[in-house]
Amino acid sequence: MANKPIVDFEALKNNLSNVSKPIQVLNEKAEITDQEVFDSFSDDDLVEFMKKMVWERALHEQTMNFSRQGRMGFYAPTEGEEASEMGTVLAMKKNDYLLPAYRDVPQLIQHGATVTQAYLWSRGHVAGNKFEARSMMPQIIIGAAYDEAAGVAMGLKKNGEDAIAFTYTGDGGTSQGDSYEGMNFAGAFKVPALFIVQNNGFAISTPRAKQTAAPTLAQKAVAAGIPSIQVDGMDILACYAVAKAAREYITAGNGPVMIETLTYRFGAHSSAGDDPKRYRTKAEEQPWFDKDPLIRLRKVLEDKGLWSEEQEDKLVDEYKASFKEAIKEADAVPEDKVSDMLKRTFEIPTPEMKKEIAKFEAKESK
To answer: Could you tell me the Gene Ontology terms of the biological process aspect for this record (predicted)?
Structure first.
């Protein structure tokens, strides 16, 4: 997929304060804006991208249904961000190390975890962390995954691995000190890290305009000496091409890169119950709904005779059926015990903790 370098990161490194138009291959009207890059994708590539976005949209819809039924723990909706998430993660290799935030569960699944494990993680069950993917568990602390990524990338560099650490945060995450500290370390030691900012416009209810006066969030990498770029986060082709180019630049030994994807969260911040209607108007939302990444690529595929409504409906039914099986598997896993949780806290329990373990074991045995 996509052999043409879409970004000159070395030029960006020499002109870090430059603010350019976000990279785009397919605009909101489904018009091709970069024919050479578009032509580098085969028909099979385009169909596969569409399937991945349909999968994530179906995952969001079905998981929100489970949440309303009280069958999930914390869940961060992803509707609207499919191009940003699928486009970037598909450009990575399985030996790359993912440092996800809590909205990055779809990427974690694509990188190797199972849906069942993701559901168990949402419930706070220890089995939800026992995935084989080369990844940490999703980070709840805002921006902290950037620190983790810098450290993991240092380890990859010291081990001489042909791999990178890639991580995500939202626009709100760039207002946290952890994000800058992670980027500063990565830039100073020239480690193989890719920092992705999914700018969906809001840090829960705080709009991006009230978080920072910076013209772009990508520019926040400037102080760390890291080349950065904005990309249309509703265009999966652009997200993939830019992420792929960034990975190639990083693995060539050039140090880290930061990508800001301009995307939008169609619904609430989380399943915990915030109401977007209290801080967003329909007039603000509609232009972003019109940029829906699925609508955009769907039109291209339909025009090429590669996609149909029937085909998509069948896929959605298949995906949702698999998610229903995954929740059943999660339901069948024995509940985590408090005594086991305490045993995992320290390698050698303290005397007081030993008493607590014994107390809970006695209760659990009844």
So the answer is: branched-chain amino acid catabolic process
